[in-house]
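User: What would this chain look like folded?
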Amino acid sequence: MRFHFYAIKLSGIMILIFVLQLLIPGFTDFFVLNGDAWSQPWRFLSAVFLHGGAGHLLYNLFALALFGSILEKLIGGKKFVVVFFITGILANLVSINFYDSSLGASGAIFGVIGALIFVRPLQVVWAFGLPMPIFIAGVLWAFGDVIGIFIPDNVGNIAHLSGMFFGLVLGALYKKRKRRRANPKFVIDEGSVRSWERGWIG
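Assistant: Here's the prediction, encoded as structure tokens.
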């Protein structure tokens, strides 16, 4: 299975778009997720590639490059891209009901993490200053986001949780499909058996 470095390429696109945010007045306002998205649906996708500052961007780039590359290696480039975009869009469809405006790839990245938790739950990652299985890290991240919902800040906790949920669903679907392919049903073709009998038994 060829590795396409899609997570790295998506990171490059985000860097380019962040430069455009800095250089073009009104660029962010035209693509950010807000109430206009119901009549301007591109915002559900475009907001995934926007960021509110250099720190926000760098944090997301690190997470996307790390977890995205691991997931792409496990399930393939096309499936990784599907997970990224589907969970990012669905997370925005949920979060628009709770925030006046939002932007960032966090929903999609948590979707990638959710899929990775289901596909490779014992994958060791570095989180909270310690090496741990990703499913434990995921539980801790989710717990932190649940608490964050009740503490006003600028973090899209609901987008994180939504993205992780949809990522878990896609990861479960992928793992189930992979298990089916790995254990095909054994089928005996009656015609072949009778041909063998005629040739060897007479």
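The domain at 6-200 is CATH 1.20.1540.10 (Rhomboid-like fold). If you want, I can go into more detail on any region.
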